[in-house]
Amino acid sequence: xxxxVRGSDDGRALAIEIIxxxxxxxxxxxxxxxxxxxxxxxxxxxxxxxxxxxxxxxTTDGGGTTVRLVKLAPRRASAAS
Length: 81
Description:
This protein is mainly β. It has two helices and four strands.
């Protein structure tokens, strides 16, 4: 299949968009923590994205699925005057 990856960094946050032009899937119930015996060999992707990123959003339509991941930059300590 085909996909597109885009990224941007404005100094405050890194944003990554992955656009998959496939048929998509039902997101209901995806990303919940599951016992490995129940999960099988797949199923950690959305869970890991939610654990590692500050924001995760999905858009699904007839043209595919877009996943947007945002990681905020750590706050810098301000210099004392």
